[in-house]
C-alpha cells in the first residue's frame, strides 16, 4: 500500500528542484491518511467477527452454578487471550509474515517455499531462470537454515507442511460457514427478551433470510460492501464499550482487578477439569482474529494495526468487563449474557445495531474465504473455480460465485439444522483455535527459516503460545460430539478434494514429463511428407516447462498438419505474489520455422492475463523479432499473415484410463480426479479466449 514512498525515503534522494524533507513529509501525511481510511474500512470487513464475539461467548459456556470468583477468572482468561493472541501474536508478529501484502496460511507456505526447496509438485518448483525475479522479491538471501535443509531432505516433512497449510485453509473456510451462522443467530435471539413468545423456528427463519441477503451482496465487491458496512460496525464498536462502562460503574467497579493473572490460577485450582472444559467457550472471545491475517491482501498492515489497537481491542476489553460486572451481580443470566446487560432504555437501538453488526461480522470470514480459495486455485491445489477481481486498485479484492453460493447453502443449513446455538458455538471453537495453532507453528518456521530469528526469541514466542493454544485445542476437542464434528466434516471433505486434485495433477505431470516431445522430435514430425503447414496462428497450450506436451505428437499424427505459425504457451506459476509486467510474457524460437515458445508467468495475486492474450503475445513476438535476427521483418510478416488467416487456441485434454490391473488407490483417487476435472472450469476461459476460437483435443493415458 505504502511501499512507494517508503522506498523513496530509504534511498534518501531528493525528488527534484523543490524536493527534500517537505515532499517526504507530505507523502507520509498522504500515506497516513490512506492508512486511516483503510483502518476505517477494516471495521466493516476484517474485524466484524472479532468485535461481535460478546454476542455469543458467555451463552456458549454452559456454566453450572457460577460464582463471582468464576466470572473474575473467566474475564482474566479473556483479557489475556485478547492481549497475547490479538495484540502480540497477530498485530505485533504475524502481520509482518506477509508475502508481499498477502496473508494467511497459504501465503506463509508460499513464502517458505520461496526460501527453501520445500515444494511438492514438480510444476511448482522454482526454476533457475526465475532467480533474478525472485531475488528482487525475496525478504532474505543466503544459504538455507538448518531447518530449511531438514525440510529439503525429508519428503515426509514437506508433505506434513503442505497438509498443515491445506488444513489451515480448510478450517478457515469452516470459519466462513460458522461465523455468519452464530453471529446472526445470536443477534436475532434478542427478540426473545421482549417477546418470549417468539419461537426458535421464527428466529432461525429470520436469520436464514438475512444470511441469504448478505451472500447475494457479495458480487458487488469488498470495497462497496465495506463502505456500506463500516458505519454500522463503527456504531457497534463505540456503543458497546459505553454500555460496558455504565455496567462497570453500576454493578461492579472493581472488575479490573481481574486483570491480575492470579485470578486465572485460582479459577483452575477451584474448577479443575470443569474449568478446563470452559476454555472451549472462552476461546470464542478471539474468534475472527485470524481474519486480520487472512484479509491482509484486502487492506494494509498499518491500517489493520491502527484499527485494532485504537478501537477494537479497547472496545472488547471494556465490553467484556461490563458484561462480567453485570453477571457478577446476576450470576445465572449467562445464557443471555449480552442482551441482559443492555439497559432497558437503549435495548431496541442496541438490538438493531447488534443485528446489523452481526451481518457485518459475517463479512470478515466470507472475504477471507474468497482470498484463500483464490490463492489455492492459483497454486493448483484446488479445482478451478471462477474468480472475479472486484477492484481495479486492490489486487486482493476477489469474489468467487461458486464458493459464495456453496457457503450460502452450508451456512443456512447450519442455522436451520443445528438444534441449539450452543452446538454452533462448540463447532466454532474447534475451528477458531485450530487455525490459530497452525498459524503459530508456521510462523515459527518463518522465524527460523526466513527471518533467522535468534533461538531464544523463537522459544519465547513458540513455547507460551503453543502451550496456551494447545490447552485450548485439548478443551475444544471434548466438544466434538456436541457440534464440533461439523468443521471436521467440512475440512475432511475439502482436504479430500484438494488431495484428489493434487494427486491427479501430479500423476498427469509425471506422465507428461516422461513422454514429452523434444524440439528434435518435433522437427522429425514436421519433416514427414504427409504433414502440411496450414495457414493460421495457433496457440497450443502445454503444462510442462521443459519440452512439449505428448498431446502434440498425438495431434500431428492424427491431423497430419500444423499451423504456419504455432506458439506453444506454458502457464508458469512463480512463488511470488505479483510478477513484474516486463516479466509476464517471455517468448523464444523453438527451431522449426514459424514455431515459438511462450511462457506466461504469474504470481498468486495476479490475474492470469489482463486483456487480449493474442495481442499481448504477438506484440511480444514482434519485439523479439526486432531485437534478435536480421530475418525479423520476414518473421513479423509471416506472423501478421497467419493472424489475419485466423487464430485458434488448442488445449489438450488428457484423461486417465484406469485399467483392471491398476491398484485400488489409483482407481479411487484418479476416478475422483477425473470427476473433479470434468466439473471444474477450463483454464482457457480464464485467459479470455473467444469461444469460437477454442479447440480441445482428447488423449487417453492408461494407468
Automatic annotation (TrEMBL):
The chain crosses the membrane at residues 38-59, 71-91, 160-182, 202-220, 232-255, 275-294, 306-326, 346-366, 403-421, 427-451, 458-478, 484-503. It is found in: Membrane. It is a multi-pass membrane protein. GO terms for molecular function: potassium ion transmembrane transporter activity. Residues 535-702 form the K+ potassium transporter C-terminal domain. Coiled coil: none annotated. GO terms for cellular component: membrane. InterPro entries: K+_transporter, K_trans_C, K_trans_N. Pfam families: K_trans, K_trans_C. Residues 1-25 are annotated as: Disordered. Residues 39-522 form the K+ potassium transporter integral membrane domain. Keywords: Ion transport, Membrane, Potassium, Potassium transport, Transmembrane, Transmembrane helix, Transport. Potassium transporter. Belongs to the HAK/KUP transporter (TC 2.A.72.3) family. This is Potassium transporter. It comes from Miscanthus lutarioriparius.
Amino acid at each position: 500500500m505504502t511501499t512507494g514512498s517508503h522506498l523513496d525515503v530509504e534511498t534518501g534522494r531528493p525528488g527534484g528542484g523543490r524536493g527534500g524533507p517537505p515532499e517526504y513529509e507530505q507523502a507520509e501525511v498522504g500515506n497516513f491518511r490512506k492508512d486511516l481510511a483503510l483502518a476505517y474500512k477494516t471495521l466493516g470487513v476484517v474485524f466484524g467477527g472479532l468485535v461481535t464475539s460478546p454476542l455469543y461467548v458467555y451463552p456458549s459456556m454452559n456454566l453450572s452454578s457460577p460464582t463471582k470468583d468464576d466470572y473474575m477468572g473467566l474475564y482474566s482468561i479473556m483479557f489475556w487471550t485478547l492481549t497475547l493472541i490479538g495484540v502480540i501474536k497477530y498485530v505485533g508478529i504475524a502481520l509482518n509474515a506477509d508475502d508481499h501484502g498477502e496473508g494467511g496460511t497459504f501465503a506463509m507456505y508460499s513464502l517458505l517455499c520461496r526460501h527453501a526447496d520445500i515444494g511438492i509438485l514438480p510444476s511448482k518448483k522454482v526454476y533457475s531462470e526465475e532467480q533474478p525475479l525472485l531475488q528482487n522479491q525475496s525478504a532474505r538471501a543466503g544459504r538455507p537454515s538448518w531447518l530449511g535443509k531438514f525440510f529439503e531432505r525429508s519428503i515426509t516433512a514437506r508433505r506434513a507442511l503442505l497438509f498443515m497449510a491445506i488444513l489451515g485453509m480448510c478450517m478457515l473456510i469452516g470459519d466462513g460457514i460458522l461465523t455468519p451462522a452464530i453471529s446472526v443467530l445470536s443477534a436475532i435471539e434478542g427478540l426473545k427478551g421482549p417477546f418470549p413468545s417468539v419461537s426458535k423456528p421464527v428466529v432461525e427463519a429470520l436469520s436464514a433470510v438475512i444470511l441469504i441477503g448478505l451472500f447475494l451482496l457479495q458480487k458487488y465487491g469488498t470495497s462497496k460492501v465495506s463502505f456500506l458496512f463500516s458505519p454500522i460496525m463503527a456504531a457497534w464498536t463505540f456503543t458497546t464499550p459505553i454500555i460496558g462502562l455504565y455496567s462497570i460503574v453500576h454493578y461492579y467497579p472493581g472488575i479490573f482487578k481481574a486483570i491480575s493473572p492470579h485470578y486465572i490460577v485460582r479459577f483452575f485450582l477451584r474448577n479443575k477439569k470443569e474449568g478446563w472444559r470452559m476454555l472451549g467457550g472462552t476461546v470464542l472471545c478471539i474468534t475472527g482474529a485470524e481474519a486480520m491475517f487472512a484479509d491482509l491482501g484486502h487492506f494494509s498492515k498499518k491500517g489493520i494495526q491502527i484499527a485494532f489497537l485504537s478501537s477494537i481491542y479497547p472496545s472488547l476489553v471494556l465490553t467484556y468487563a461490563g458484561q462480567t460486572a453485570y453477571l457478577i451481580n446476576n450470576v445465572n443470566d449467562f445464557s443471555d449474557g449480552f442482551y441482559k446487560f443492555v439497559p432497558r432504555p437503549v435495548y431496541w437501538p442496541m438490538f438493531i445495531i447488534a443485528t446489523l453488526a452481526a451481518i457485518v461480522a459475517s463479512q470478515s470470514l466470507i472475504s477471507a474465504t474468497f482470498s484463500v480459495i483464490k490463492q489455492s486455485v492459483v497454486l493448483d491445489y484446488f479445482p478451478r473455480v471462477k474468480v472475479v477481481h472486484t477492484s481495479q486498485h486492490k489486487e486482493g479484492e476477489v469474489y468467487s460465485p461458486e464458493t459464495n453460493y456453496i457457503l450460502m447453502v452450508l451456512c443456512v443449513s447450519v442455522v436451520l439444522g443445528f438444534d441449539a446455538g450452543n452446538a454452533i458455538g462448540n463447532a466454532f471453537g474447534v475451528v477458531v483455535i485450530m487455525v490459530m495453532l497452525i498459524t503459530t507453528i508456521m510462523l515459527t518456521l518463518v522465524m527460523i527459516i526466513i527471518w533467522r530469528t535468534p533461538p531464544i526469541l523463537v522459544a519465547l514466542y513458540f513455547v507460551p503460545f503453543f502451550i496456551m493454544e494447545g490447552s485450548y485445542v485439548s478443551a475444544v476437542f471434548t466438544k466434538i460430539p456436541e457440534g464440533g464434528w461439523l468443521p471436521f466434516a467440512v475440512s475432511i471433505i475439502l482436504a479430500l478434494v484438494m488431495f484428489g486434485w493434487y494427486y491427479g495433477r501430479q500423476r498427469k505431470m509425471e506422465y507428461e514429463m516422461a513422454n514429452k516431445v523434444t524440439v528434435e522430435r518435433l522437427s522429425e514430425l514436421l519433416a514427414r511428407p504427409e504433414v502440411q503447414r496450414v495457414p493460421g496462428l495457433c496457440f497450443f497450450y502445454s503444462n510442462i516447462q521443459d519440452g512439449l506436451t505428448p498431446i502434440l505428437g498425438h495431434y500431428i499424427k492424427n491431423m497430419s498438419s500444423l499451423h504456419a505459425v504455432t506458439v506453444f504457451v506454458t502457464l508458469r506459476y512463480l512463488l511470488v505474489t505479483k510478477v513484474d509486467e516486463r516479466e509476464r510474457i517471455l517468448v523464444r524460437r523453438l527451431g522449426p520455422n514459424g514455431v515459438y515458445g511462450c511462457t506466461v508467468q504469474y504470481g498468486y495475486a495476479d490475474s492470469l492475463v489482463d486483456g487480449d492474450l493474442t495481442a499481448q503475445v504477438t506484440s511480444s513476438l514482434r519485439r523479439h523479432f526486432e531485437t534478435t535476427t536480421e530475418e525479423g521483418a520476414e518473421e513479423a510478416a509471416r506472423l501478421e499473415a497467419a493472424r489475419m488467416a485466423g487464430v485458434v487456441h488448442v488445449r489438450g485434454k488428457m484423461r486417465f484410463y484406469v485399467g483392471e490391473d491398476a491398484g485400488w488407490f489409483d482407481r479411487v483417487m484418479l476416478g475422483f480426479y477425473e470427476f473433479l476435472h470434468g466439473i471444474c472450469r477450463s483454464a482457457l476461459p480464464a485467459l479470455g479466449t473467444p469461444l469460437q476460437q477454442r479447440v480441445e483435443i482428447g488423449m487417453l493415458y492408461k494407468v
